[in-house]
Write a structure and sequence with these properties.
heterodimer; A: alpha+beta; two-stranded antiparallel sheet; 13 helices; 12 strands; elongated; B: alpha/beta; Rossmann fold; 7 helices; 26% strand
């Protein structure tokens, strides 16, 4: 008997027992739909974390000044005025795997527009800042490098600040005052959303480094010191290797002796994100394994029903054998029944799982991510379950002695 | 056509039971033989082995010149499919297939194409007098009609041998006569027919009667 005929016989047998087939497939449907939903939700969660990491600026190293130890009192990271503009420039120039750098000084200050005012974080940065953080200008422009050098009184607004200071009008070309110094708004930055730490990244106002230094005041001891240096590593280059190169360069520039501690610290913001992603991955792996277990439970349901079915249909098997069915024909007939059942269950489960993921995503304001690979492997896996659990009952059916089978009325 | 030599069959049923004990017989092509004997005399066991549904414990059996006791189960299935047609007491039709599909079934296992199967089945429905009943399920047919469907199914692969186990046991006398008439016509077509029966009336129609007692032929 050719496989197509066998398939037809199997499908007919399943159709003849609709309720039983449906109930048996239900186990697979639940297992597959749970698997698909968990894969989609898990991928969505990881994508959300990845988006947060991206919003920090990808491939970003952040260097802050180190601790100073004043007569045994440790003032903590960032206290020492050890990082300079020139350090940032040197890193960009001398390390080939660095794409761009920017010095940053920041501080929370009240900002006043015509009728509104708002306390926000003012970042005073170099022109490389926007590239380093992958932050694009939504309207207007960024400042030029000679504007940055000459201390031009220009500013870019984050979305939150723009909304607070200019609720009804286009802020471009308008004036804001920071500590009574007027700045012309030349650009609006695109929305970035929350950081991994939960901070609103759009609550920011950005001014050129030298201007900001003049207005916000600078460190009394070393007037060219900065609060942080952002280092963007080139795509494909090793973050760790570049970090080591930067460390070596800074130690040389700061003339540290071999046993002396670094007077600067790397702050790895993506570590937070990695931890979060690891958490998301652990959770989704856990949910996925529960889903897979339920799929296997569905397989045991198939095993159970197929065994009952073989016993019930012993007479049919006997008749088929008497008129010429080989063992292989009987084996395939029952195996196909199990596989058709599990594949149909798998397909229905995929549809149900996608629907569940969509509903969940809608409720949780997430994007579920469904890839073809997940759907394909879920269907294949349910088919595998059908083969594995359908094999034994089918084998039992094929091993019946025709004489005994036909007498089982 | 059918020859056995010292054929024995033992069963393990809480002690050894000898169902068949050294049976040696020979049935020629075109013969119409009745096999009779009381319950448990071994006549059904005999038919099971000759029909390739079971294997002998000892002894040899030739069907159409080929020795079957060493054949693989696939080869036995092929012998059942091509050389033997079965008719059972309880009709042994598949309840969920209609009359035509039941008749076609052996052809499916013989690998015959669908359209050809249908044609052959329709012809056989006419032969057994059930023209137009092809779409009926077994439950929609009378006992006699069901047994005629079973006879048609037995004939569908043009076997040389027809084995019938109590073919009239579940039928009223009118239907039994119809079925036996069919068998008489089959003999005219040159089929070798072996009928296992209790009924002396049925046995009398055969050209030869083989009697079984306690696993032996008398």
């Amino acid at each position: 008997m050719n496989p197509l005929e066998t398939l037809r016989v199997a499908v007919t047998a399943l159709r003849d027992h609709k309720l039983r087939s449906g109930l048996t497939a239900l186990g697979i449907i639940i297992g597959t739909s749970a698997t698909i939903a968990m894969l989609a939700i898990g991928a969505g969660a990881r994508a959300q974390v990845a988006a947060q990491v991206q919003s920090l600026g990808s491939n970003l190293l952040i260097i802050v000044p180190g601790n100073i130890n004043q007569a045994g009192v440790k003032l903590g990271a960032g206290a020492a005025p050890t990082l300079m503009d020139e350090d940032a420039a040197a890193i960009a120039q001398e390390i080939s795997s660095v794409q761009v750098t920017s010095s940053v000084i920041s501080g929370k200050t009240q900002v006043v527009a015509e009728a509104e005012n708002w306390a926000t974080i003012v970042y005073t940065v170099e022109t490389g800042y926007f590239e380093a953080r992958d932050w694009v200008v939504e309207s207007g422009r960024v400042f030029e490098s000679d504007e940055a050098k000459n201390g031009a009184q220009v500013a870019l607004l984050g979305q939150t600040v723009a909304k607070q200071l200019f609720p009804d009008v286009d802020p471009i070309g308008r004036e804001v005052r920071i500590r009574n110094v007027p700045f012309q708004v030349i650009g609006m930055l695109a929305k970035k959303g929350q950081s991994t730490a939960g901070q609103d990244q759009d609550d920011a106002l950005i001014v050129p480094l030298n201007t900001g230094r003049r207005v916000l005041g600078s460190n009394q001891v070393k007037s060219r010191s900065v609060a942080a240096i952002l280092v963007k590593v080139r795509e494909g280059a090793s973050m760790m290797q570049t970090g080591e190169d930067v460390e070596l360069l800074l130690r040389q520039r700061h003339q540290l002796l071999p046993l002396q501690e670094n007077d600067f610290t790397f702050r790895n913001l993506s570590a937070v994100a990695e931890a979060k992603e690891a958490g998301a991955r652990t959770l989704s792996n856990l949910l996925l394994s529960v889903a897979l277990v339920s799929l296997i439970t569905g397989g045991i349901g198939i095993l159970n029903i197929m065994l009952v079915s073989v016993t019930e249909r012993t007479r049919e098997i006997g008749i088929r054998m008497a008129i010429g069915a080989r063992r292989r024909d009987i084996l395939l007939q029952f195996l196909f029944e199990a596989v058709v059942l599990s594949v149909l269950g798998g397909v229905a489960g995929v549809i149900l799982g996608l629907a569940a993921a969509t509903v969940f995503a809608y409720a949780a304001d997430w994007t579920p991510i469904v890839d073809f690979w997940a759907v394909g492997s879920a269907v294949l896996f349910s088919m595998l379950v059908g083969i594995v659990f359908g094999w034994y009952p089918a084998l039992r059916a094929s091993r019946l002695v025709p004489m005994q089978a036909i007498r089982a009325a | 056509m059918i020859r056995t030599e010292n054929l024995s069959r033992h069963f393990q049923l809480g002690g050894q039971v000898t169902a068949l004990d050294g049976v040696t017989i020979s049935i020629n092509a075109g013969e119409y033989v009745a096999v009779t004997g009381p319950s448990g005399s071994g006549k059904s066991t005999f038919m099971g082995i000759v029909g390739c549904l079971d294997r002998p414990t000892r002894g040899k059996c030739w069907i159409d010149g080929a020795e079957i006791s060493d054949l693989s189960s696939d080869d036995l299935a092929a012998v059942r499919n091509r050389k033997i047609g079965f008719v059972f007491q309880n009709f042994s039709l598949l309840d969920r297939l209609n009359a035509r599909e039941n008749i076609e079934l052996p052809l499916i296992y013989a690998g015959v194409h669908r359209s050809v199967r249908r044609e052959i089945a329709e012809t056989l429905l006419r032969t057994v007098g059930l023209e137009g009943r092809g779409d009926h399920l077994p439950s929609q047919l009378s006992g006699g009609q069901q047994q005629r469907v079973a006879v048609a199914r037995a004939l569908v692969c043009s076997p040389k041998i027809i084995l019938a186990d109590e073919p009239t046991g579940a039928l009223d006398s009118k239907s039994a006569d119809d079925v036996m008439d069919l068998f008489r016509r089959l003999k005219e077509f040159g089929k070798t027919i072996v009928v296992v029966t209790h009924d002396p009336q049925i046995a009398r129609r055969a050209s030869r009667v083989i009697r079984f007692h306690d696993g032996k032929t008398l």
